[in-house]
Amino acid sequence: MIGEEVFIHESSFVDERALIGSGTKIWVNAQIREEATIGEECIIGKDVYIDKGVSIGDRCKIQNGASIYNGVEIGDDVFIGPGVVFTNDLYPRAFNQDWELLRTEVMKGSSIGANSTVICGNRIGEYSMVGAGSVITKNVPDLTLVAGNPALIISKLDEFGRKVT
Known about the structure:
The chain is an all-beta fold.
């Protein structure tokens, strides 16, 4: 189901079983699979992949080349930078037919910098920020800046992303 005033670029593929909120824009070569839910007034950039069952809140910006796999739940007002990748299997093997899907939560107002990788089963807290190129291997607390590989706490933040400690 597609809401009012949704823009879908002609080169994109949106499965008819996906739910797209009003005012959302889906740009060049994006793919949105069945049972994905995208909220209102989102921007889905060029070459974005949104897997089956992914949930994205309202007013999110998903930048070019991001890959969001089954098991990811994204809250409202979230920024996902270009090239961000989410995983959903801790022990990936091409031959494993009995793998366990691990859920990942990205909470309201958080931002994930370009080319970061989010290992499944983690929670990225409200209004937190992940520095570009980081690898998330554990939960990120609310209102916290993390960076590095593995990502480590750099400082606490306010809701606008400014350091407070």
